[in-house]
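User: Here's a structure from my thesis project, written as structure tokens. My advisor, Dr. K., wants to see whether a designed sequence matches the one we expressed. Can you design one independently, without my sequence as a hint?
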């Protein structure tokens, strides 16, 4: 796994340049609904294929419905839709830090259909995430991505900053299994 990059943006005033709002395809950005799950799953799989982590995408449509909608939702999904089809997704969640007032918004996934990139869909989805941050009185939107991700130029153009001092650590697989094992009982001396 390539090292990640932590990218953050202030949730302050958010404006897109006029040229970024001009698109040649009609689309709308809105809150996702359960009927969008097949399109969300398709784009999530596209992300996993691009990152060579297909083995991590195991959720069923029922899992997506349980975790995305209703009173116990774990994350928020915005979709870009055109002609009734999901063409882009932004998935985010609130994250809380001890001593901070209010959440930060963690952008977990952003994906636009490959053939529709460069038409303002990603910018519009990110604008919706920024609006959520402002509505939740959040001071920042954060994301972690793999080094070399081509979306970095989009994030940086919109005001996200590469926080080079931050490091991203993960533990998974056998190492996680071993760490989670109870320590052997110690013999009293």
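Assistant: Designed independently from the structure alone:
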């Amino acid at each position: 796994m390539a090292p990640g990059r932590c990218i953050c943006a202030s949730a302050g005033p958010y404006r897109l340049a006029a040229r970024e709002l001009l698109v040649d395809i009609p689309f709308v950005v809105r809150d996702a609904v359960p009927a969008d799950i097949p399109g969300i799953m398709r784009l999530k799989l596209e992300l996993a294929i691009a990152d060579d982590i297909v083995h991590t995408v195991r959720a069923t449509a029922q899992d997506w419905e349980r975790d995305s909608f209703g009173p116990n939702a774990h994350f928020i999904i915005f979709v870009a839709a055109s002609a009734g089809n999901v063409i882009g997704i932004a998935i985010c969640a609130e994250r809380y830090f001890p001593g901070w007032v209010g959440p930060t918004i963690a952008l977990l996934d952003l994906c636009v259909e490959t053939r529709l990139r460069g038409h303002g869909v990603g910018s519009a989805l990110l604008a919706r995430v920024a609006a959520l941050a402002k509505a939740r009185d959040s001071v920042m939107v954060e994301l972690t991505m793999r080094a070399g991700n081509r979306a970095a130029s989009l994030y940086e153009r919109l005001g996200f900053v590469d926080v080079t001092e931050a490091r991203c650590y993960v533990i998974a697989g056998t190492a996680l299994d071993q760490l989670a094992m109870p320590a052997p009982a110690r013999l009293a001396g």
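When you compare it with your expressed construct, this may help: The chain has one domain: 4-180.
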